[in-house]
Write a structure and sequence with these properties.
Blueprint (H helix, E strand, L loop, with lengths): L1 E2 L7 H6 L7 E4 L6 E5 L5 E9 L2 E9 L5 H16 L15 H16 L2 H19 L9 H10 L4 H20 L27 H17 L4 H13 L3 H5 L6 E2 L4 E4 L7 E4 L2 H8 L24 H10 L8 H13 L4 H8 L4 H4 L3 H24 L7
Parallel strand pairs: 1-2
Antiparallel strand pairs: 2-3, 3-4, 4-5, 6-7, 7-8
Helix pairs in contact: 3-4, 3-6, 4-6, 5-6, 8-10, 8-12
């Protein structure tokens, strides 16, 4: 039931209102369409009713007591104006401005999870959580400028590679924000930040170090201080030049003895084959196959593969007095030995699964050393013929 009211709706007048028998609406004297609905229970709710282009509309503003009468009146006037102009009674809620943390989550879910491998996903999330979020996570993306990114980059200067990688990932996030129209175009704050020069770390095992490592591996396996599967994994890494996960995730189905090759279907650079040399085959022959476990390097739990060989490596390299040698240096050392034996850079790149020639080119200086040694050997031989065995060819 509706009722006219000849008084302005205020807290005092509303408190005095009561419904007789059933609910009733009491309208304000000064603002047409603004009223209060009074229920038989005594509950009172502010309402608005007016006509717009699409007909009459009635909406509820809020409960008397929780919403002050003066505030309700101002809100009612705004609602009436919007309805008469054909708009929704209430404006759409303003979405909070997207922060770097919000952008990072969208980037991980909308791009990385769809387009990147699991290892890449884990690496990106680690960089975001360790470096980007603590420094920039709470900032709205529209407030991040070049100076802030430069300061962020500078604070990581002690680890140049990590600094460059973090800024590179941040740049990709802002590029996707532009593509998704979450940020204005041409405002990527990372583009003008100059990256640090990275010095690639190179460590190659010498023949004597290889022999020492071989002895330590054999002794550790003999005493039982190293599991046979871990020893086999390290030997395969030494003998193949493969990446760590390529060996740890090797399946028995990947071992093609007829074709004498390892068929790696899921590597960093795509599917590739690794020749099955006699030395590699000898290691594989010494690995017992555990039931229906598909993995060559079996884990402790049934049906799993080993995931942590680094802990074993740290212990073994200490015994071999090779504390500065990383597992990945075994791959570099494989390339170094191949160059010393006269293999070309292009062949080494193919055997190692490099997609770009530039990746293999990092070993070019080793190739030059090999060329100089070969030239010295040839020159010495010719010099002996020309000057005689006792002559000083220098």
């Amino acid at each position: 039931m509706s009722s006219k009211n000849d008084r302005k709706l205020t807290k005092r007048t509303i408190d005095a209102l009561a419904a007789i028998g059933r609910e009733a609406i009491f309208w304000d004297r000064d603002l047409a369409g603004f009223g209060v609905r009074v229920y038989a229970s005594g509950r009172k709710v502010f309402v608005v009713q007016t006509r717009g282009p699409r007909g009459p509309i009635r909406v509820t503003l809020g409960r008397h007591g929780q919403l002050l009468a003066d505030h309700a009146r101002k809100q009612a006037a705004q609602v009436i104006d919007r309805i008469k102009r054909g708009l929704e009674p209430f404006p759409a809620p303003v979405e909070p401005e997207l922060t770097v943390a919000g952008l990072a989550e969208r980037y991980m879910q909308g791009h990385v999870a769809v387009n990147c491998r699991k290892r890449t996903q884990a690496s990106y999330r680690h960089i975001i959580q360790r470096h980007i979020l603590p420094e920039l996570g709470e900032l709205p993306i529209t407030e991040v400028d070049r100076s802030q990114v430069a300061q962020f980059h500078y604070r990581l200067r002690e680890t140049p590679q990590a600094a460059n990688t973090a800024v590179k990932l941040l740049s990709r996030m802002f590029s996707m924000a532009e593509m998704w129209e979450l940020a204005p175009p041409g405002r990527n704050p990372c583009r003008a930040v100059r990256r640090y020069k990275e010095v690639r770390r190179e460590r190659f095992l010498s023949p004597e170090e290889y022999r020492k490592l071989g002895r330590v591996l054999k002794e550790a396996e003999g005493t039982g201080s190293v599991r046979p599967s871990a020893a086999a994994a390290l030997r395969l890494l030494i003998l193949t030049g493969c990446r760590k996960n390529e060996i740890l995730q090797l399946r028995w189905d990947d071992v093609d003895r007829a074709a004498r090759e390892l068929r790696l279907s899921d590597t960093k650079t795509g599917p590739r084959s690794v020749p099955l040399t006699p030395a590699v085959e000898a290691v594989l022959n010494g690995i017992p196959r555990k039931g229906d476990n598909p993995w060559v390097i079996a884990g402790k739990k049934a049906g799993t593969h080993m995931v942590d060989v680094d802990t074993v490596w740290v212990r073994l390299r200490a015994k071999a007095e090779l504390e500065d040698v990383r597992i990945h240096d075994l791959r570099h050392s494989w390339a170094s030995r191949a160059l010393a034996l006269g293999e070309s850079l292009s062949m080494i790149g193919k055997l190692m699964g490099h997609v770009r020639a530039a990746t293999t080119a990092r070993y070019a200086h080793l190739a030059r050393d090999t060329e100089k040694a070969a030239a010295a050997k040839v020159g010495g031989s010719l010099g002996a013929d020309i000057f005689g065995p006792d002559a000083d060819a220098a």
